[in-house]
Amino acid sequence: MKNNYVRQLALPAIIALFGVSCSKDASQGNLEKITGAKAQIASSTPGIDSANISLNWAQGYQKIDGFGAFAGRVTPFFESPKRDSILDLLWGNSGLQLNMIRGEVLHTYPFNSSTGAVTIKPATVDIDVSPTAAAYTGLTADQKTHISQLWIMKSVKQRYSTPIAFASTWTPPLSMKTNTSVVSAKWFNGLNYSCCSSSFANYVAGFVKGYQNEGVSLYGVSPSNEPENVFSDWPASYWTAAHLGEFITNNLRPALNAQGLNGVKIISSENAAWGTANNFLSSMDKSNVDILAGHGYVEIGDLIVGTRGLNQNPSIWNYATGNKPVWVTEASDDAGTYDASMAMGLKLATSMHKFLAECNVNAYVYWLGMLAFQNNEALICTRSDGSLEFPKTYDVMGQFSRFVRPGYFRFAASVSNNGNLRVSAYKDPATGKFSVVVINTGSVPVNCAVALSGFAASSLTGYVTSAASTAHWAATTPVNANASGGFVVNVPASSVVTFTGTSTLQ
Known about the structure:
CATH topology of the largest domain: TIM Barrel
Number of strands: 23
Shape: globular
CATH superfamily of the largest domain: Glycosidases
CATH architecture of the largest domain: Alpha-Beta Barrel
Oligomer: single chain
CATH class of the largest domain: Alpha Beta
Number of helices: 11
Strand content: 25-35%
Low-confidence stretches: 3-44
Distance between the termini: 45 Å
Structural class: alpha/beta
């Protein structure tokens, strides 16, 4: 969670926590070169570049679990008069079609330590209460947060059958921390292991059970959020890798099982920097971790020199993941000045491409779905007049979430003769549907010759997000295959285009 949108860092601690720069594992190196003659294309029009794209159906990679967003900041979300439209715009068919939602194991719930019960909503107020009703306005700030999050999570699950809802824990209840008066992790403030490991595990399990009783079965839960962050003022808890692994194995997994929540997956460790997560997870007991997770912010070395925001060059983790799913559970641009332009959209596109096509992640979750003002940390913003604004990051997110569906597998895509293009491809083996996401960071359009290997398709349809586009994912005229079975497609300058088709030969 971000506070005042500033990451305050102390140099000695930064150096101690520095994540390695993970070079790409040679065994998972560049995509295999596709043999055979490639179609060539030469542009005769000044100001238009050319490129060759090769797609190889037979070379497969990771399964895609999906894309999502965090439900907070929940109170302004719940109180927004446009909240139903916002839900549609994020999780509905007319919007991003997200299939994941992230919530928070808030630290302020009433907890019965004897029974393990967590009260996740005010007992006398229905969650469908109007934000203007006296029953709601009379609640405390914490109670409003509780009911707001539950309403959002439950609405998303019920309206859109969103299959993956999960929650992360920023901090244990204050009574369970080493400094019981501080909500942050400053001065290494974290769980008091001498008294409270079992109690905290029961608290997390009680939260999951409480949501299940309300009809929201959580897919997974994380006991930590950015466990290395001992610098910021927002709610947080300091963990060492050893203690977090021990807690998950000895306390959390048994507590979940005792509540009949054996199928709920444990997610860890959600460090802010991808390289830090690599270091953290590589040295902890992961035997009871089901999903390996990190956040998509810049590396600590970048922070030292004053760079913040979306990680533009993450590296594949240099330890064996044991074939467990790998998720980016939070990412946004927290660098400051609001930028709704395609420049920011291309930063998100580059980050998503690098994580999916180079780091082999299975899921990508954006930080905030909406904000009641304008800021880079949200996919949907609110102008001063109350109207909604869609920065280009919203459209770029949709280039992946709308067309790269859960259950698709990434397959081999390579580009030659153009340094401004990034290409990744995804397929549904059951139906033959496929999507190819092409990112052009250059200032001129590119004509691309697309060669297919191991499959055939009769046509491709493109959906465009560019600086000039006004509609979300504007569809282009379908392009038919040429005599060689390939395609020639155009990718505008500074754009993201997803081409979709169906294989006729697998």
